[in-house]
C-alpha cells in the first residue's frame, strides 16, 4: 500500500523498521552493505523512535503497529511487500532483480510478508532495545544522535 504525503520528492528516502527485531536489523545491515552509490542515500529510523513515530503520523499510518517495514520515498509511503520491493531499487545488482516479484498480486505478496512478520520474533529473536548504529553509519539513522566521543589515548 502506498500513501501520499507532503514531503518533498527530493528528500532522502527513509526506511522505517522494527528496531528490536533481529530479522529487521539484519535487513537494514544487508541494505547498507548492498546499497547503490548515489546522490540520495537511504536514511533509517526505528518504528519505536520519535522520528519513526513522527513520520508514521505524518503519513497517516498507525504509530502503534510495529509489524511492517515502511519506505518513504519520493513523497510516498509504502508498506509490507511494496516497501521491500521498492527498497530493492536502491540496491546494486543482482539484488535489484528481486523487484520482478512485483508481477505477483499484492494480496499474495502481503500474505507471505504477514506470515513472516507474525513469526519473526519466534524465528529470528528480538532485542530488549533498539540496536545502536556503527560510527560509520550513525549519520544515516534519524534519532541516533551524534557519534560518541572517544576519550582518546590515555596520557
Could you describe the 3D structure shown?
The chain has 155 residues and is α+β, with helices and mostly antiparallel strands. The chain has one domain (2-140). It contains four helices and five strands, in the order ββαβαββαα. The protein has helices at 22-34, 50-58, 80-88, 106-124; strands spanning 2-4, 14-17, 43-46, 70-73, 76-79. Strands 1-5-4-2-3 form a five-stranded mixed beta sheet. Helix 1 links the parallel strand 2 (14-17) and strand 3 (43-46). It is globular. The termini are far apart.
Helices and strands, in order, run as: EEHEHEEHH
Strand % is 5-15%
For this structure, the quaternary state is single chain
Tell me the Rg in angstroms.
Answer: 16 Å
What's the number of extended β-strand segments? 5
Q: Please tell me what the overall shape is.
A: globular
- Structural class comes to alpha+beta
| Domain tally | 1
Helical coverage, percent range: 25-40%
Estimate the mean pLDDT confidence: 83
- Could you give the distance between the termini? 57 Å
Record the strand order, biggest sheet.
Answer: 1-5-4-2-3
Largest sheet: 5 strands, mixed
Which segments are poorly predicted (pLDDT under 50) over 5 or more consecutive residues? 1-6, 146-155
- Count of helical segments? 4
